[in-house]
Amino acid sequence: LVEVQTRSFDNFLQLSIKPEERLNQGLHAICKSDFPIKDYTDRATVYYISYDIDIPKYDVEECTQIEKTYGANIQVNVRLIVRYIDEEAGTKSVRDNKEKKCIMYNYIII
């Protein structure tokens, strides 16, 4: 039973697969389905690129000693595109284009 749960969790995170080669399933599929996120004026859009999972800061034994939870951060790589809209001409142009890693979640490793 534990092996089935472990395999299922591994398939959900796809840690052994490079970000650009991940299948459209699990956490990757969830992130893809929630993006892009646009503001109501269509001037800014956030796009999902990929996610990474940090290496835990402490091992299990250290966490026990210092009374911390054994876990790691899930970071999402996103791209923000800000557009300038010329109301008179009816045109849009890219004003800013930035990529950044954002901590989405700290998950507990079982």
- Strand-residue proportion: 35-45%
User: pLDDT under 50 segments (min length 5)?
Assistant: none
State Rg: 19 Å
Helical content stands at: 25-40%
Quaternary organisation of the protein chains: single chain
Number of strands: 4
Briefly note the structural class of the backbone. Answer: alpha+beta
Silhouette: elongated
Concise overview:
The chain has helices spanning 2-13, 26-34, 60-66; strands at 37-38, 44-53, 71-86, 91-108.
Structure description:
It is a single chain. With 110 residues, the protein is an alpha+beta fold. Helix content is 25%, strand content 42%. The chain is built from three helices and four strands; from the N terminus they run ααββαββ.
Layout of SSEs?
Elements: H1 2-13, H2 26-34, E1 37-38, E2 44-53, H3 60-66, E3 71-86, E4 91-108
Antiparallel strand pairs: 1-2, 2-3, 3-4
Top keywords for this entry?
elongated; alpha+beta; 110 residues; four-stranded antiparallel β-sheet
